[in-house]
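Reminder to self: tokens first, then the designed residues, so the page reads top to bottom the way the pipeline ran.
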């Protein structure tokens, strides 16, 4: 088993923290996390893949242990987060890799693929959406905020998505009761502590507002799929209220050879299916690398 290394690299005067494991001569998998977490979400998956792959998992600007300049100092958009990730992969010398995209990792990773298709060898999407039919009921308060950026709509997001109870719900909703004891409470407690850092609420509100620009790019993502035909595995918690199972199935429209696997779970399936996901990744990338 390969040890996980914890590193920081400087990108445009920003400290970007990342986890790294495995032999650099082996195929690389870039792990792109979701909201409200960080590369911490991959802590169970990385050791299970490090014997066959080189794993790299960065924290985005404003997340985890990376720099978090205020929203007045850095414009928090998914375009800018993706640009930093691109500079990150070039700085550490990644020239060809597959991507694992979850939640926010999807618009960040797919922007990378859209602009630099030569880098991408394959895509593993775990509740990482690219289709309108994959936007679920849990988006209602965010959509309201995007349509009318009022204090009332902002307060609804704060009460639902910034609270400890709301963060716990993201990990536990839709989870089979037998799997609930496998969810580490440190996940949602750590996420909440980081969301409560001074100024972080404004960062996250800016990203919620900007998410509408990801949806506007969906047609471009679909064109990329059809033109470049990247191998794609969608492994998806089928009871995710943010990104329901229809989002996984939709990849077949533009990538008929995509592999779609629905599992009994919610938004963060790595908490209780990390071995299964690792096994499926090994089979999928083994065929496509």
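Designed residues (289 positions):
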């Amino acid at each position: 088993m390969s040890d996980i290394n914890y590193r920081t690299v400087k990108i445009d005067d920003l400290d970007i923290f990342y986890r790294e494991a495995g032999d650099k001569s082996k195929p690389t998998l870039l792990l792109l996390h979701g909201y409200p977490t960080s590369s911490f979400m991959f802590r169970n998956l990385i050791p299970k893949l490090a014997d066959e792959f080189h794993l790299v998992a960065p924290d985005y600007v404003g997340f985890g242990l990376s720099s978090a300049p205020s929203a007045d100092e850095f414009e928090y958009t998914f375009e800018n987060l993706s640009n930093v990730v691109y500079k990150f992969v070039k700085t550490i010398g990644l020239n060809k890799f597959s991507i694992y995209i979850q939640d926010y990792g999807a618009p960040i990773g797919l922007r990378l693929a859209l602009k630099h298709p030569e880098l991408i060898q394959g895509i593993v999407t775990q509740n990482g959406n690219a289709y309108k039919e994959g936007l679920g009921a849990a988006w209602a308060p965010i959509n309201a905020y995007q349509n009318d950026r009022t204090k009332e709509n902002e307060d609804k997001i704060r009460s639902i998505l910034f609270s400890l109870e709301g963060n716990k719900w993201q990990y536990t909703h839709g989870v089979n009761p037998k799997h609930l004891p496998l969810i580490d409470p440190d996940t949602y407690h750590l996420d909440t502590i980081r969301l409560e850092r001074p100024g972080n609420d404004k960062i996250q509100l800016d990203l919620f507002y900007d998410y509408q620009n990801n949806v506007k790019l969906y047609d471009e993502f679909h064109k990329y799929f059809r033109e470049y035909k990247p191998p794609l595995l969608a492994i998806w918690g089928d009871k995710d209220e943010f990104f329901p199972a229809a989002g996984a199935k939709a990849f077949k429209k533009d990538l008929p050879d995509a592999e779609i696997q629905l599992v009994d779970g919610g938004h963060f399936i790595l908490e209780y299916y990390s071995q299964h996901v690792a096994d499926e990744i090994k089979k999928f990338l083994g065929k496509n690398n």
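The radius of gyration is 18 Å.
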